[in-house]
From TrEMBL:
Signal peptide positions on this chain: 1-24
Species of the source: Bordetella genomosp. 4
Keyword Cell division in annotation: no
Keywords from the named record: Signal
Family of this protein: Belongs to the UPF0065 (bug) family.
InterPro entries the UniProt entry points to: BUG (IPR005064), Bug_dom1 (IPR042100)
Protein name (Swiss-Prot/TrEMBL): MFS transporter
Length: 324
């Protein structure tokens, strides 16, 4: 190759490499889609929609929320995993979809580490042990005593097989030496309704979902599956304090894009998202509903995902939980 041809080749390569960076500098030039893996009107929407509005204001382009429910979040995750790595499709992922599902499904349709670039964690809420107001259980010790008196008879509900509520129950059994009966429902609200109605005595559920009905006296929260007490329920002990050490289950969520998205776009999204998460306008309504607002670097988010993925794999294996 002549020097002139070599120079042209080098120039062309540099020019091509500069194209994504040029587009990144102009990002965004069109509406952005925020994919939520739950139906409209649910707990995820309560965070995603105000977040999308705030992000749209900061980006100068509409941010459209697109609900793609099904398969415990796999449908939405697999969809985003096939989208271009250009920052125009954002995924509102959770511990259930990203850290649990890959260990439950043989073919979830995505790889949480190969297909996604974390941006920031956004919020979390611990799971809690909640019992119906009509039950005689006033403490974790009461539940454990009843469960040991009749092994395999005391039932607990959850949002379905393999979700974090179910896994909290497995952790509880292991830490207390009890044997419970798991009753899977099609969603947490249905299970909570039956707890309030007395059809089942208890369940493990998100604090943010349980707090309003607990404040209304319809259920009792016996313990928080966290390493610290919740400021929203300061009188409720942690599982460790209540006699169930090792029962820790915190449902977190965060924003991700496709792996390979140009670094300037990831940096821009991170900057804007962290700024939103710091504003009282976004934080206060979420905190009032029981969510703890977070923010993180992409590296911190990835580290937490890896740690929780390993932890959930161990719980699932020990509990012999299978979906397909």
């Amino acid at each position: 190759m002549t020097i002139s041809r070599l120079g042209c080749a080098v120039f062309s390569a540099v020019a091509l490499a500069a194209v994504p960076l040029a587009h990144a500098a102009d990002y965004p030039q069109k509406p952005v889609t925020l994919v939520v893996p739950q139906p409209p009107g649910g707990a995820a929407d309560a965070v995603a929609r105000p977040f999308a509005q705030a992000l749209a204001a900061r980006l100068g382009q509409p941010v459209v929320v697109e609900n793609r429910a099904g398969a415990n979040g796999n449908i939405a995750a697999a969809y985003v995993a096939q989208r271009p790595a250009d920052g125009y499709t954002i995924f509102y992922g959770s511990i259930s979809t990203l850290a649990v599902n890959p260990h439950l499904y043989k073919s979830p349709g995505f790889d949480p580490f190969k297909d996604f670039q974390p941006i920031t964690l956004t919020n979390q809420t611990p799971n809690v042990l909640v019992v119906g107001a009509q039950t005689p259980y006033k403490s974790v010790a009461d539940v454990v005593k009843a469960a040991k008196a009749e092994p395999g008879q005391l039932a607990f509900g959850s949002a379905g097989n393999g979700n974090t509520m179910h896994l909290t129950g497995l952790q509880f059994e292991a830490s207390t030496g009890t044997k419970l009966v798991h009753v899977p429902y099609k969603g947490g609200p249905a299970a909570l309704t039956d707890v309030m109605g007395g059809q089942i005595p208890m369940m493990f559920h998100n604090l943010s979902a349980v707090l309003p009905v607990a404040q209304a006296g319809k259920v009792r929260i016996l313990a928080v599956a966290d390493e610290k007490r919740s400021p929203l329920a300061p009188d409720v002990p942690t599982m460790a304090e209540a006699g169930a050490p090792g029962t820790v289950q915190i449902a977190w969520s965060g924003m991700l894009v496709r792996s390979g998205t140009p670094a300037p776009i990831v940096d821009r999204l991170h900057k804007e998202m962290v700024a939103i998460l710091a504003t009282p306008e976004f934080r206060k309504p979420q905190e009032a509903q029981g969510s703890e607002i977070l923010s993180s670097t992409p590296q911190e988010f990835e580290a937490r995902l890896k740690a929780d993925s390993q932890r959930m794999a161990e719980v699932i294996k020990a509990g012999n939980v299978h979906i397909d």
